[in-house]
Amino acid sequence: MVVALVVTPRVISWASRKGICDHPSSRRVNQKCIPRAGGIALFISFYLAYLAVLLFTVRETDVVPRFREQFFFLAGGCFIFFLGLLDDIRSLPPWVKFVGQVGVGLLVWFGGLDVEQLSVTLHRGVVLPGWSSLCVTVFWVVLLINAINLIDGLDGLAAGICLFVAITLLVLSLPSGKPTFIIGLSALAGSCLGFLRYNFNPASIFMGDCGSYFLGYVLASLTILGAMKSHATVALLIPIIALGVPLLDTLLAPIRRFVLGKKLFRPDQSHVHHILLKLGYSQRRVVLIIYGVTVFLGLVALAFVFVKDQRAAFILVLPGILVFLAVKKLGYLEYLAADKFLGWLRDLTDEAGLSNERRSFLNIQMQIMGSGNLDELWENICIALEKLDFDLAELHLEKEVPDHDTCRRLQWVRPGREETLIFSGRCQFKIEMPLMAQSDISYGILWLVKDLQCSNISHYTLRRVEHLRRTIIGVLDKFVQG
After folding, report:
1. What string of DSSP letters covers 311-360?
2. Which of 10, 221, 332, 431, by CA, is between 20 and 30 Å from 264?
3. pLDDT (tens place) for every residue of the chain, 482 residues total
4. CA neighbor of 398 nearest in space, from 313, 476, 282
């Protein structure tokens, strides 16, 4: 904490001189240029404290295995920090950052910091084989790095969450007898606390990607270190509960972007803190609200640990209900509403040809494609239009289309509607489709009319009509080319 208090002002001056700043923009909440390399202060303060105390805790009997784990842990921290610093300076492409995050996850696993088993309690869990352990370890590291990075959108938000989570894990780690785990959490909490002096609203410095990446990496690595090679230590469920806000936001972000058709790695303003701002809360109020939620989840994690019988599962019921209500209040369930999901699933099955209606229409398309002359083509088109529930159709052909007579205008009326339908009627859905070949040759125009007073448009009407148009053009191409 003392190192962070001393170093951070120097970093502010250095970043200002180098122009490493966050400028106001449409996706930023700051109204002036603020230095964003605060992760340098977090990095220096954590490493100085951690290394200084670690030198006094290494026992001669386990120097070699401890040295391997600590070397790769510290090397991974340096790698992810400089990756984030380079991104703060030059704005790296998303794929470069993702590959770097996966790389540091592989480095952690190779160094022996791996998730060897999964457990939802403090008792023995499922032992993971080598490749499963690799995948879970890399996923956990990448998840926490991005969780802290995505939540770092308001003054003091990410640093405060890491502070409370580190304190929660520190309280739980004291009986474990793992000095490196305790030292790491203490150094992390102190670094965040000292940095918050300058990062809390109104902030004079932002931590930037170098800071958020580094904090996420340290939390991920330390939680693995605390849970590995022991059955009586903090299971991975405990940091998952404590990190509930950033993890939930991180997991919902790609789902939200996928549903809305946005790029998965493109930043947006639909995260938890952005939504709270849109509800009218001030920056400071939003940060304090999320602080309160994090503290509450930390207390839930503590209660979950100290209640060691079947009642532990019931402790998660209340937070689960509250999380559901919060997600609903923030509007996230709108993206996962049953009608929208079923509509998307219906479109997917139709596009893949799994629905009976799509396969039936495909059969009609094949009949149209097999038409040997213009009369047979028009007859098959009328079958398709009746299947699509249209009421009136007219086909006007150009001279380029050969036929056996001089008729260039073909009309079809749905049986039983001959006396009631006209082109100028009201409440009618009308489509005019030019039959244009790829060579820009016009074969004519197809008009379609549907009386909406009799029946509504089907969910797939326009899609079927486009399939019909392309099929007709293909057949006319065949007629013209002989």
Report:
1. HHHHHTHHHHHHHHHHHHHTTGGGTT-HHHHHHHHHHHHHHTT-SHHHHH
2. 221
3. 999 999 999 999 998 888 888 766 655 555 677 888 899 999 999 999 998 887 776 554 444 446 778 888 999 999 999 999 998 888 888 889 999 999 999 998 888 777 765 554 444 555 565 677 788 889 989 999 988 988 888 888 899 999 999 998 888 888 766 777 888 999 999 999 999 999 988 888 999 899 999 999 999 998 887 765 443 334 567 777 878 788 877 877 777 776 666 666 666 666 777 778 887 788 888 889 888 888 888 888 777 777 655 565 666 677 777 777 776 666 655 555 555 556 666 666 666 656 677 778 888 888 888 888 888 889 999 998 888 888 888 888 887 676 655 557 888 888 877 666 555 566 788 889 888 877 678 888 998 988 887 778 777 788 888 888 989 988 888 888 76
4. 476
Q: How far apart are CA 222 and CA 278, in angstroms?
A: 35
- Tell me the pTM: 0.68
Longest dimension (CA), the chain: 103
Q: Give the contacts of 77 (CB within 8 A, at least 6 positions apart).
A: 43, 46, 47, 214, 217, 218, 221
Q: What angle do CA 431, 433, 439 make, to 5 degrees?
A: 170
In angstroms, rounded to a whole number, what is the distance separating the alpha carbons of residues 127 and 181?
Answer: 22
Compute the distance between CA of residue 367 and CA of residue 387 in angstroms, rounded to an integer.
13
Residue 142 and residue 105 in contact, taking contact as beta carbons nearer than 8 Å = yes
Q: How many other CB atoms are there within 10 angstroms of residue 139's CB atom?
A: 14
Q: Which neighbouring-strand residues pair with 431?
A: 448
Coil, strand or helix: which one is 19? coil
With b for 16 or more beta-carbon neighbours within 10 A and e for fewer, the 5-16 pattern comes to bebbeebbeebb
Assign domain 368-480 to its CATH architecture.
2-Layer Sandwich (3.30)
429 contacts 450 by C-beta, under 8 angstroms:
yes
